[in-house]
Automatic annotation (TrEMBL):
Annotated protein name in UniProt: nitric oxide dioxygenase
Domain Globin stretches: 1-133
Pfam families found in the cross-reference section: FAD_binding_6, Globin, NAD_binding_1
FAD-binding FR-type domain location: 138-239
Cofactor: heme b; FAD
């Protein structure tokens, strides 16, 4: 770890325990110095409270890998155009963050820490700004909900039609906001189809715990609603030059990007064997199985294995999908795509490492919806 990385980690450990207070101070400082900024945030800050702070801290802490994150940060800058973020906002946010940490760190805080955070933050902000400034697309797209279907108690699949052309690559995700239901609350979801001639986009959403946006999208979204979409992000794309057979491992609605990549494969694949491992808690949550089976019946190169982790009488595989994949194989020559909750992705990456799958052949995008 470089010196800068060490200083950042060291200083964050001084305030880590008081994250809530740091977040409270940070937003108060932000809105005090820039009352206009309040309009960019949702009315109720409860859910939002730790999001921005966590995102910045994670990005800053990864500064040693900044080169690796350049594409991500540029895309994040483009994505942030949906908030109408101006260059001066970046400065205010950085200043408020450092002040909030300094105030809560106690006597051990030093000028060195101030400088380290300022340097790392400036680097990240400049890459994000570059991404935003070179983007010629609209800051967001309006899209009309044209279909909405409840597939399980907590899972819905819905389709939208963007009002202007919306370009993306199979496997990417976008932030979504529904102004009628929850203005200014944006959450990322994967697009569950490859680009289509009719421009429609499909999303799979599960209403989880305190996930306000997800619950609203599952329970309250209606055909005819207008939602807003931000710029597409993510690098979980197919490499058309690869001739390797491919394995997709999906947990729950993490199936969405897998469906998108499968749809792309149906357009050109003739030679690669493709295996889908789809895990859910119970059989009802295997919400898209009928469609997967239909694809497998039509394309001889595709096979599907399903598993339930909390349904002992399910006749298919039992257990977490990260373990189920290890019962098949050998996999050391395959390309892998992993999609699901953070813990599911982590567990699957561990299994694959144990199975000697080189990490370079494993693609995943990890994002969590709260
Ligand atoms: N909706 C979308 O477009 C996308 C969603 N995701 C993420 O996928 C997740 C889906 O959540 P749910 O449907 O509620 O899935 P879930 O929590 O019900 O889990 C589904 C399956 O994933 C596996 N799994 C879960 N936790 C695991 C762990 N700790 N270790 C090993 N395996 C585990 C198990 O096989 C389980 O049956 C969410 O976290 C969401 O953020 C990811 C990509 C796209």
């Amino acid at each position: 770890m470089g010196d800068l990385g060490r200083l950042l980690k060291e200083s964050w450990s001084l305030v880590e325990e008081h994250q809530d207070k740091v977040a409270g101070y940070f937003y108060a400082r932000l809105f005090l110095s820039y009352p206009d900024l309040r309009d960019l945030f949702p009315v109720h800050m409860d859910v939002q409270r730790s999001r921005l702070l966590n995102a910045i801290v994670t990005a800053v802490q990864s500064i040693d890998d900044a080169d690796k994150f350049t594409d991500y940060l540029r895309a994040l800058g483009r994505d942030h155009r949906k908030f109408h973020v101006e260059p001066e906002h970046y400065e205010v946010v950085g200043g408020a963050l450092i002040e909030a940490m300094r105030v809560h760190a106690g006597e051990q805080w030093s000028v060195e820490y101030d400088e380290a955070w300022a340097e790392a933050y400036a680097k990240i902000a400049s890459v994000m700004l570059q991404g935003a400034e070179t983007d010629t697309n609209p800051p967001f797209w309006y899209a009309e909900v044209v279909a909405h279907e409840r597939r399980a108690t907590d899972v819905s699949v819905f389709t939208v039609l963007p009002m202007q052309p919306f370009e993306f690559r199979a496997g990417q995700y976008v932030s979504i906001e529904c102004p009628r239901i929850q203005p200014r609350l944006w959450r990322p979801y994967s697009i569950a189809n490859a680009p289509r001639r009719d421009n429609t986009l499909e999303f799979h959403v599960r209403a989880v715990g305190a996930g306000w946006v997800s619950s609203a999208l599952v329970r309250r979204l209606e055909v005819g609603d207008m939602i807003r979409l931000a710029a597409p992000m993510g690098t979980m794309n197919l490499d058309r030059r690869s001739t390797r057979d491919t394995v997709f491992v999906a947990g729950g609605t993490g199936l969405a990007p897998v469906k998108s990549l499968l749809e792309e494969l149906t357009r050109y694949n003739r030679t690669r064997w493709v295996h889908v491992f789809f895990g859910a808690r119970n059989r009802e949550d295997l919400y898209d199985l009928a469609e997967l089976n239909r694809l497998a019946a039509r394309y001889p190169w595709l096979s599907v294995v399903t598993a339930c982790s909390d349904d002992p009488t399910y006749p298919g595989e039992q257990g977490n999908i990260s373990d189920v994949v290890a019962r098949y194989g050998p996999w050391s020559e395959h390309d892998f795509f992993v999609s699901g909750s953070g813990p599911m992705v982590k567990a699957t990456l561990k299994t694959l490492a144990e199975l000697q799958v080189p990490s370079i052949r494993v693609k995943y995008d990890s994002f969590t919806d709260l």
